[in-house]
Write a structure and sequence with these properties.
By secondary structure, the chain is an all-alpha fold. It has one domain. The protein is about 70% helix and about 0% strand. It contains three helices and no strands. The radius of gyration is 16 Å and the shape is elongated. Belongs to the complex I LYR family. One of its GO terms (biological process) is iron-sulfur cluster assembly. One of its GO terms (cellular component) is mitochondrion. This is LYR motif-containing protein 4.
């Protein structure tokens, strides 16, 4: 993989992780991050430039989906789960 291609892949990976964090629901956030990491790990050994470009295009489409879902989730927010409200115990 060329250096510029590698940099583009890493930028896309970071952008997808960053965009997944503001999901309003904890389960969506953890699922999205897990799927992103798994997908990139699964395809890290791909060497064919055509296949790399196809995977990059798919990831860019998925990034758009993540962004839309985050905005929709913010419009229709729900109550936080117990695991999301972890405050430090008072002593």
């Amino acid at each position: 993989m060329a250096a510029s291609s590698r940099a583009q892949v890493l930028d896309l990976y970071r952008a997808m992780l960053r965009e997944s964090k503001p999901f309003s629901a904890y389960n969506y956030t953890s699922y999205a991050i897990r799927r992103i990491r798994d997908a990139f790990r699964e395809n890290k050994s791909v060497k064919d430039p055509v296949q790399i470009q196809a995977l990059m295009n798919k990831a860019k489409r998925d990034l758009g989906i993540i962004r839309r879902q985050v905005h929709i989730g913010q419009m229709y927010s729900t109550d936080k789960l117990i695991i999301e409200n972890q405050e430090k115990p008072r002593t």
